[in-house]
TrEMBL record:
Name of the protein described by the UniProt record: Transposase
UniProt xrefs under Pfam families: DDE_Tnp_4 (PF13359), HTH_Tnp_4 (PF13613)
DDE Tnp4 domain segment(s): 138-295
Cofactor: a divalent metal cation
Record InterPro entries: HARBI1_dom, Transposase_HTH_dom
Domain Transposase Helix-turn-helix: 57-108
Length: 304
């Protein structure tokens, strides 16, 4: 067993001890409710107990949270974490499954609004319209394991861009590169604009007329359907265009790229967590993992 003080250091968890303390305070109650709910389901109903009664966990809640953060940050195997915390591998597996789900449900923090969090794309559009914020949106791909040969739908994960099996995440950030929302992830073969439409972005453009979203050339279809709100860079001039026209369009594309680059910075913050560099676990757990990491990264929004 390794000292708990050492394991809770920012080098291992990716968060400061102050941030860790706030996560403990926020998630302790929901975790206890999850544990009690699982027991009641196994027993067929709740029962009355005296204060202090019940099972004694070998791995306390704080240790479960720290183990999950270390797993997200460094992708250490469950067996190694079990050795570090002095418990069985299965205990670590169960703990990570519990805490990861709670972290994914938190949503993303709102800049300068402690306690307020955005969980859906509708929340993001409503917040952007109320605050007059220009949004930035982009998609990124995470390499995943190749589906078994006997399973259907294998081609859906083959990315035409990466030439790998991937899953695609759509991320929305503000003008300072602070993460506001990420979707439930889609197979890597799906086009960026299609993934956005699957999340209902067209409906939100219709309901929030004042919201503008800066996009790249992968979303030209959205610009066609929602002009003035879905903003993509101007097209490049062709070879027969006058030199001054080519120069003007290049300058316009550069200005657009300079404004949209903040969402790329947000994606880079996510990819610093090793599990998002290359996902080697079950694909069905990747969406919750990405949302958990995005929520943790966004917590810096509340501190400026």
């Amino acid at each position: 067993m390794v000292s708990r003080m050492v394991l809770s250091h920012q080098v291992f968890t990716g968060v400061s001890r102050g941030h860790l303390a706030s996560l403990v305070e926020e998630l302790a109650g929901p975790w206890q409710a999850v544990v009690e709910g699982r027991r009641h389901e196994a027993r067929g109903g709740a029962r009355k107990r005296e204060a202090g009664a019940g099972v004694r966990h070998r791995l306390m809640f704080v240790d479960r949270l720290v183990a999950t953060l270390i797993h997200l940050r460094h992708d250490l195997p469950h067996a190694v974490l079990g050795l570090l915390f002095g418990v069985d591998r299965s205990t670590i597996t169960r703990a990570i499954g519990e805490i990861r789900g709670l972290l994914a449900e938190r949503g993303c923090a709102v800049p300068d609004r402690p306690g307020l969090r955005l969980r859906t794309l509708a929340d993001v559009f409503a917040y952007a319209q109320a605050e007059g914020i220009e949004l930035r949106q982009d998609a990124t791909e995470v390499q995943v394991r190749r589906p078994p040969a006997s399973r259907g739908g294998r081609r859906a994960f083959v990315s035409g861009k990466k030439k790998q099996n991937t899953m695609k995440a759509t991320v929305v950030a503000d003008h300072q590169g602070r993460t506001l929302w990420t979707d439930a992830l889609r197979p890597g073969r799906m086009h960026d604009a299609t993934a956005a439409r699957k999340e209902g972005i067209g409906t939100f453009f219709q309901h929030f007329h004042d919201v503008e979203v800066l996009l790249d050339d992968g979303y030209l279809g959205l610009r066609r359907d929602h002009p003035g709100q879905a903003v993509t860079p101007p097209r490049k001039g062709n070879k027969i265009s006058p030199p001054e026209v080519l120069e003007a369009r290049l300058r316009a594309r550069h200005r657009h790229s300079s404004k949209r680059i903040t969402v790329e910075h947000a994606l880079a913050d996510h990819k610093r967590w090793k599990q998002l560099a290359r996902w080697t676990h079950r694909r069905e757990n990747l969406p919750a993992t990405y949302q958990a990491i995005a929520g943790i990264v966004s917590d810096r929004n509340t501190t400026g």
